Amino acid sequence: MAGTDTARTDTTRTDTTATRTVRSFCRVCTSVCGILVETAGDQVLRVRGDRDHPMSAGYTCPKGRALPDVHHHPDRLERPLMRAGDGFRPTTWEECLDDLGARVRAIIDEHGPSAVGIFFGSGVGMDAAGYKMAQSLHRAIGTPAKFSPLTIDGTAKVLISDLVGGTPALAGRPDYDTATFVLFVGSNPVVSHGHTVAMPNPIGTLKALRDRGEIWVVDPRQTETAKLATGHLAPRPGTDHAVLAYLVREVLRDGARRDVLENRCVDADTLAAAVEPFTLEHTAAICDVPADELTALCAAVRRAERVAVETGTGVTMSASANVTQWLSWALMIVTGSMNQPGGAWFHPGFGNRLENVQLPVSPAGGSFGPGPRSRPETHSFLGEWPCAVLADEIEAGNIRAVLNLGGHLVTAFPDTETLVPALRKLDVFATIEIIANETTALSTHVLPTKDQLERADITLWDNLMPRVATQYTPAVVEPVGDRRSTWWVLAELGRRLGHDLAATSGDAATDGARLAKVVPRDTFGEDLTTRQWAETDRQLPAPWVERHLDRLGGWRLAPRLLVDQLAGLTEPAPLVFVPRRQKRHLNSQFDFLGTQAEILIHPDDATPASVRDGEPVTVRTAHGEITGLARVDPAVRRGAVSIPHGHQYANVNRLTDKNDLDPITGMAHYSGVPVTIHPG
């Protein structure tokens, strides 16, 4: 079965063409909704939701339904390309990889492995066999210069798991099956479907939750999720931490689970001292929200038997990201909601099987290591360097080759005006991609790999998923042109660098054979490839989490790094930009759907600046500017300018500064940055 790349399909015949419907799952995001893909020959006709799927239950978003347009995109890449002067020439895989391998080998021989940077982009991140091979290639090369989206939008979540939970492996999420109180802070799952953890069928999930309990939202905009909520607070951008500090203070003074504090926590007194300044009056002033709204939220927390808190990029991209995430965990811990029904639960994974391993205990000061030579004030976290340092490492001559594995660096990395000239100076810039874009245009080698409909696959980030533990899909259509599997491309590159990473010919070189090596052998076989999904045993409380807490000595409620950062936060500027996701757009992948870069501005901010609804607006920071379409909307609070991510022509990275970094994680600030607005 390991070499099988097909599964059951339904076939009908029209007057002229045989059509097929193949059960698959969407890999646009970690919600991995079940889909049915209709094809006729080599044409992908339609994608619709799979009503039999145990989690998404027929739901798909516009991006998932647009997969046929991705597959048939007019700018899709079909053959390897090598730079020739100011353009490219098509070539063969053998010539392209021979040239790439020889040039990377020469760089390593002369300058050492650290002269090669590797970016693990979202493209390879949603390709199970490709990602595992990327890890193998990275280990074989031995470079410390590893980058990923972690330091673009999500470092705070893993940091708090590491500092408070004693391991980065604890990816908690609300227990949506039984929760009666969920607080969303800077998260809009109706549009973004969760951040680092998944919520397939979000509207159905939220409506079921609202029918049995309460939903509260903290966000400077009345989001699509807020419209479904019991209550909504719109604090000043960058002050979410104050709302949570106030809640933790009040619960610690009256209502905390004393048995949890005494038997499952350390440093509760230090936490109490850290949040003591956040009285009702002080918090209302900082956040610029009515005091009665804060007391109503606090009363709802007290009513709840368990509390679940979920954060999103509205939190994790701001200067207060770490302390907000910390205090969200603290609130769940002191209310006795961690690893409990109705609170937060921790998925053990399917391939990872965390319940069968002893998780290592992280140092109290965090899992940090040496950073790049050009930026000695930064460091690595969990073996990764901040994306913001790449341009400096290139300019310093420390990085001479970059292997870009499925990422659009121009619209993903901070400080575009500095990054692009640096990328042009590289000796080697090899990009794995499926559609041409501004990043491929800067590359020396363009490596076209299979899109998600062209390859067999399984879900990789199983411990980030909901109740479904893993899924399998066959390839839906044959690859176009000369596209190859990402794992094959990287294994072939590794071979040219002197590393035997995998067989690339013969029976062992199918996608199915590689997938069988991604998860334990007994979990990949006839049952999974026939049924196509498997569910996890959702234990609450999970014994493996409790065993880890026994070794840790209890939740670390007050890490010194976070206590100090909370005390050092300053007031936000009067007008700042904040991030936003859009239903029909994600990380520059769906420009063809026609979604514009609509910049949301409150009327009280637009009028003095002579900005009018429906007309161009220019947003400026001290570092750069972009122009988008103004939407004057009272649903966003005063002082917040809401800008969507991923647009190539209104690239929010042009507003960011590679030197404006979180001092702990090195992540660039993408929210709360002071701006001015002007008619475009």
Automatic annotation (TrEMBL):
The record's InterPro entries line, in alphabetical order, gives: Asp_de-COase-like_dom_sf, MoPterin_dinucl-bd_dom, Mopterin_OxRdtase, Mopterin_OxRdtase_4Fe-4S_dom, MopterinOxRdtase_cofactor_BS, Prok_Mopterin_Oxidored
Q: From what organism does this protein derive?
A: Pseudofrankia asymbiotica
Q: Which family does it belong to?
A: Belongs to the prokaryotic molybdopterin-containing oxidoreductase family.
- Give UniProt keywords alphabetically: 4Fe-4S, Iron, Iron-sulfur, Metal-binding
Q: Which domain of life is it from?
A: Bacteria
* Record-given protein name: Molybdopterin oxidoreductase
Tell me which Gene3D superfamilies the record gives: 2.40.40.20, 3.40.50.740, ADC-like domains, Dimethylsulfoxide Reductase, domain 2
The molecular function terms of the Gene Ontology recorded here are: 4 iron, 4 sulfur cluster binding; metal ion binding; molybdopterin cofactor binding; oxidoreductase activity
> Where do the 4Fe-4S Mo/W bis-MGD-type domain residues begin and end?
19-75
